[in-house]
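Title: Prediction job returns without error message
Component: structure pipeline
Severity: low
Priority: P3
Assignee: unassigned

Description:
Job completed but the reporter wants confirmation the result is attached to the right record. Sequence as submitted:
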Amino acid sequence: MTDIIYRLEPELGAEEFIDCLVRSTLAERRPVDDHETICGMLKNAGVIVAARTTAGLLVGVSRAITDFCYCTYLSDLAVDKGYQGRGIGRILIERTHEAAGLKTMLLLLSAPAAESYYPHIGMTPHRSAWYLPRQ
């Protein structure tokens, strides 16, 4: 996609991140009203990849936590609804994995509405994920 520019943006600002989350619907499952938490999410991420129009509008973002050698957790993958279906999500995943190291296993937890997307781009489902809820 030639009209989209992808780059690492470790200093991505909270307001711009929140705006992209809202335009992607991911805000429904993120603490967008808790500025301190959003700032911490950005500050402590290992990899943040942005997708921007040539005019500079943030239309996609991936945020991952990684050790850069074994495991990468892609915590947030958001693409503006108006830009979905153009391969932006796939490229964000690829760029995130490259930045974290291709020897890492990249994993994510899918939103229910996106479960059919990930096999479509070559990701393998895992049937036994476990978690402890936030307190």
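Comment from assignee: result matches the submitted record. The mean pLDDT is 94.
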